[in-house]
Design goal:
The chain is of the alpha+beta class. About 25% of the residues lie in helices and about 30% in strands. The chain is built from six helices and eleven strands. The strands form two sheets. Strands 3-1-2-4-6-5 form a six-stranded mixed beta sheet, with helices on both faces. Strands 7, 8, 9, 10 and 11 form a five-stranded antiparallel beta sheet that branches. The relative contact order is 0.16.
Length: about 190
């Protein structure tokens, strides 16, 4: 099913303008995931560039080899009967091919959550706990982690003016400490 859906998606994108971002998920250099994000919409590409860690030098751009590729095409819909999906909207991961495909949805947050899903699967295999939480750090290096369901105040609680904000949504906890999956914060600016 994946191969057929992916082939049809590539056919749909053929001859169309697409936008490409080479970015990273995960601020810890030992556990970051190089990702290539290909989007049909320019603003989805800008969202991905803003959301994730960027290459900052020409040399980094040259050396960027993605470990995972995500293709997001909101204008393409699945055919549930032919593609084996439950609806026209789909978010499908293939870990063997290191490829995620998204279609039928204009919500750019699906790109973010797809990268997080990949990290949530891969990082525990490296001995890193992946967490849906916000986090901040005190002046002595003590980390505080705020867990809770969406909308329960994690972001607000982590925005303490006397502590350095690590991030407000997804983090890893590994041998080097707590690190953000994104480049900054999704919901707050400090």
């Amino acid at each position: 099913s994946f191969s057929g859906l992916h082939s049809r998606l590539c056919g749909y994108l053929q001859g169309r303008d697409v936008f490409v971002q080479d970015v990273y998920g995960g601020a810890d250099p030992e556990h970051r995931l190089p990702v290539r994000i290909i989007t049909q919409k320019a603003w989805h590409s800008l969202f991905a560039r803003t959301m994730f860690l960027k290459n900052t030098t020409v040399e980094q751009v040259r050396r960027h080899v993605p470990d995972f590729t995500i293709i997001a095409a909101p204008g393409f819909q699945a055919n549930p009967m032919a593609d084996g999906t439950r609806s026209e909207t789909f978010i499908v991961l293939n870990f063997r091919q290191k490829l995620g495909i998204i279609g039928g949805t204009g919500y750019a947050g699906e790109i973010k959550k797809t990268v997080f899903t990949v990290l949530n699967y891969l990082l525990p295999l490296e001995g890193v706990l992946s967490m849906h939480c916000s986090a901040n750090v005190g002046k002595d290096g003590d980390a505080a982690i705020f867990f809770g369901l969406s909308g329960t105040g994690k972001t607000t609680l982590s925005a303490d003016p006397s502590r350095r904000l690590v991030g407000d949504d997804e983090h890893g906890w590994g041998p080097n400490g707590v690190f953000n999956f994104e480049d900054g914060c999704y919901a707050k600016m400090i």
